Amino acid sequence: MPGVLASVATFTIEGVDSREVAVEVDVRRGLPAFTLVGLPDRAIREARERVRAALLNSGLDFPMQRLTVNLAPAHVRKAGPGFDLAIAVGVLAATGQVPREPLASCALYGELSLAGALRPGRGALAVALGAREAGYPRLAVPPADAGEAALVEEVEVLPIEDLRGMAQLLRGDRAPPRASPRRPRSPGAAARLDLADVRGQEDAKRALEIAAAGGHNMLMVGPPGAGKTMLARRLPGILPPPSFEEALEITRIRGVAGLGGGGLVAERPFRAPHHTTSPQGLTGGSSTPRPGEVTLAHRGVLFLDELAEFARPALDALRQPLEEGSVHITRGQRSIEFPARAMVVAATNPCPCGRPADRCTCEALLLARYARRLSGPLLDRIDLVCRLGPVAPLELVRDAHAAGSSRRVRDRVIAARGRQRERLAGTGALCNGDMDGRLTRRAVPVDAALRSRLSSLPEPALLSGRGHDRVLRVARTIADLDGHARIAERDLDEALAYRVGGMAVAA
Amino acid sequence: MIDACDSCLRRAFLVARLAPRIAGLLQRPRPRPQSLLALSEEQLIAAVVGVPDPGIQDWLESFDAEGARARLRAAESWAICAHASRYPAGLSQLTDPPAVLFGKGRFECLEQLGREPAVTLVGTRRPSAYGSEVAYALGRGLGAAGLMVVSGLALGIDGLTHQGCVEAGGTPVAVLAGGPDRPYPHRHRWLYELVRSRGAILSELPPGRRAFRWSFPARNRIMAGLAEMTIVVEAAEPSGSLITAEFARDLGRIVGAVPGRVTTRVAAGSNRLLQDGAAVVTGAEDVLDQLYGVGCRPLPSPDEPQGDRLRTVLMAVEECSDPAQIAGRAGLDAAEARAALGRLESEGWIARDSLGGYERRAR
Questions:
Q1: pLDDT-derived band of residue B56, with 50, 70 and 90 as boundaries?
Q2: Are A435 and A429 a contacting pair, CB within 8 Å?
Q3: DSSP structural state of residue B282
Q4: Choice among A22-31, A164-173, A440-449, B63-72 with the minimum mean pLDDT
Q5: B93 to chain A, minimum CA–CA distance in Å?
Q6: One domain, residues B155 and B56
Q7: Which of A23-37, A129-143, B43-57, B216-230 has the lowest mean pLDDT?
Q8: Is residue A503 pLDDT above 50, yes or no?
């Protein structure tokens, strides 16, 4: 005997993407039962209790019949709890409490409370993007998530208060509300941090400006209290504001990680994972892969404070993502890709005791060991090194306006980036820091004067092939900041002074 | 180059053959093989082996000097015996000079040893940052002044001295406790290669022999014997460096020490030397004054970089190492100071440590 069948579209989060899932509900006569199949996780299996209570508390019927819910495609593992709304509406449609036709053009996503209200979930933007991909013109989501989901203009996003409202809407008793995209009105916290707050350290500020202008990774070396963290926190504020596409990427990642604010995130992220963070914490992972710190810092800044204290495996795990700009995680039969295009700013004490150079009492052997811990895999990815000394009292009282404030620095950075974009158009790279070795040699011509300077460097300054490229990239950025079409000798000199390495005077 | 008579070679190889048994014989800690190595061949065998040993006696009688020379040549090692004219005169004053000095590297260094005074620099394997800096600077200064710098290739002070000397283009001499083809410590293999190519590696033991506990103080007497002056940079109490200083004093050579912090244990021994009347060494200039008389031989004056700005920044580097402080001293903004630092470094005036601090280099 044929049962009554309904199918509702919803989405499951996979990495930073969403994947369409059809919720099929079959109702037939028999002993009352509620079966859920199709590789649901625990949160989805528990949806049965929430759906039953929510339906009954909303004044709707829950059938005393044999109820089977299938989540298709059956081979994909699904993670809840965003399936509640789809399952509940499927039950309503299968029992004839709402018409089925509107469901063909409307996808549903949301978690139910026992009272029938919709609770905010995570990954609304990813779901909306999935709906656009799958060709659904309408998407029903909890009201708190609607502002985020509505950023996808091609999809009409319906903010739904509760299950009763959803039923009324499907029956046509109520005009569908339409959510509008939510954009931030006031600048975020990062914009309120100004470089002028950091007294002195002009050398480090200059390095920070170069790093920002070229998208170069940098390392700050200095004693505690020198202002390393303060400076790093001000980096997002001097980077160019994210474009709309970049902002969408940032919002999507934050949403998937459950950190979304229900609207567009229009500032670059700043992530500062603690040095005890595990490799999985940095790159992402666990059985249902969640984004790691490097993905959360996508299009923003990943700040690694106390670099020497990070475990070697954690830093090793970061190397490949930083090189490729993405993380690949394979779990079972699925492979998931997370974006990971972040600028790395690392900071470290110059020595284990952390005192300024003239009062340091560390033994040479200990210093050598400490330096070796740093010279690991990550240093390969660092373009600039700067050293911060203790701030002289004189500089602490000097007029703050003497320093370049963030806005002025940002204007210079934006101008420099503009020059880079023009030069690198069509190469896939956006800034000098994105260039690989081959692109560097192609996009940064070395004239005779520069070549002779580079080849006349004495032994300890002798540059390896990779170091050579890095110096050229930084020199190119300095030239971009100064508005030089060609790298001047002075630009090269400055780049050489910021390069990684040099001779370690240690036993 | 092998300039060694049969009897000296036999004596040297006998010591090498008995080396493991000497190790078992001498009571620990701090063995002094001085009296043992002064013994004649028969007495040495009797003292080390005890009961008459026909094996050793047979080996001694059938010693093949030509074969030994061939093996030395195969090991690309040179050898010079106490009877040769080029044998360092300073060593002959020892009560127990090594019969043969085995070596690798530039043989000319031995001739230079006869002409120019050499200086031995020794110290702890675990120096403070201050000690490291002084050892490096002394090695550099003495190397630049054209003196041969003798040390033991050990970690810490010894290695830094060699590095400084190599950096300045001087002639380093390393005296090893094992054979001259055995870089010890292993971690200083790279430095061994540098010293071998720029100067000489010397040893009392023939190639292929490992170092023994007793051969370190034995090596110290050679270091003391080679040099006109022995300087202790940082040494705890007791230590091998103090043994070297004692050998030097017994030979009537000048002993100097670098004043260390009174609060660090690693400088206790060297400060004690100063109390006992050792010469105070605060730089290469003091060493030249001791060797040649005050002011008789000034340090070669360094030339200067082109341009006022570079000269100003270079002067600032001598006073501080942080780029920000350097910029402040030189009165330049950060970008200009960095550009000047990059130029100075690429021209070889200054060097940067692995963490971004600058210091001036001897040219």
A1: confident
A2: yes
A3: S
A4: A440-449
A5: 33
A6: yes
A7: B43-57
A8: no
pLDDT of residue A185: 61
Same domain, B178 and B259: yes
Q: How far is residue A49's CA from residue A347's CA, in Å, rounded to a whole number? A: 50
What tokens appear for A502 in the block?
């040099």
Number of CB atoms found within 10 A of residue B277's CB? 8
Cα A266 from Cα A184, distance rounded (Å):
7
Whole-structure pTM value: 0.69
Domain membership flag for residue B303 = no
**What distance in Å separates residue A424's CA from the closest CA in chain B?**
25
Q: How many domains does chain B have?
A: 2
Residue among A18, A12, A79, A15 at smallest CA distance from A326: A15
Backbone angles phi, psi at A447, to 5 degrees: -80, 175
Domain for residue B315, yes or no? yes
Chain B residues inside the 8 Å CB shell of A375: 354
pLDDT given for residue A462 in this prediction: 47
Residues B203 and B250 in one domain: yes
Mean pLDDT, chain A, whole residue set: 85
Provide the 8-state DSSP code for A102.
Answer: G
**pLDDT recorded at residue A397:** 53
CB–CB of A483/A420 below 8 Å?
no
Considering only CB atoms, B342 lies closest to which of A203, A362, A495, namely A495
Torsion of CA A171, A177, A182, A185, to 10 degrees: -160
For residue B210, the model assigns a pLDDT of 92
Q: How far apart are CA B170 and CA B132, in angstroms?
A: 18
Closest CA to A303 of A270, A281, A275: A270
Q: What is the pLDDT of residues B78-102, one digit of tens each?
A: 999 999 989 999 999 998 899 999 9
Same domain, B56 and B175: yes
Among chain B residues, the shortest Cα distance to A459 is held by: B348
pLDDT score of B342 more than 80:
yes
CA distances, A147 to each of A10, A113, A144, A265, B266 (Å): 18, 21, 7, 11, 68
Identify which of B264, B333, B353 has the shortest CB distance to residue A504. Answer: B353
Give mean pLDDT, residues A169-184: 85
CB A495 within 8 Å of CB A453: no
CA A367 to CA A375: how far, in whole Å?
12
Question: A389 and B355: CB-CB below 8 Å?
Answer: no
Q: Domain residues of chain A, as ranges?
A: 4-171
> For testing the chain B interface, which of A362, A367, A480, A505 should be mutated: the one with the most B CBs within 10 Å?
A505
Domain extent at residue B278: 2-292
The whole-number pLDDT of residue B354 equals 59
CATH code for the domain in which residue B315 is found:
1.10.10.10
pLDDT digit string, tens, across residues B293-331: 887 777 776 667 788 888 889 888 888 888 888 888 888
B236/B281 same-domain check: yes
Q: Judge if B285 and B313 occupy the same domain.
A: no
B223 and B158 both lie in a single domain: yes
* Residue of chain A whose alpha carbon sits nearest to that of B339: A494
pLDDT in tens, B162-196: 998 988 888 999 999 999 999 989 989 999 999 99
Q: What six digits make up the tokens of A251?
A: 């919002």
Range list of β-strands (E), A98-162: 106-108, 111-112, 118-119, 138-141, 156-159
Residues B132 and B273 in one domain: yes
Residue A461's pLDDT is: 46
Task: Among B264, B292, B320, give the residue marking a domain's end.
Answer: B292
Give the CATH number of the domain where residue B154 resides: 3.40.50.450
Percent of all residues in chain A with a pLDDT value above 90, rounded to a whole number: 41
Tell me which of A295-309, B86-100, B229-243, B339-353 is least confident. Answer: B339-353
Architecture of domain A4-171: 2-Layer Sandwich (3.30)
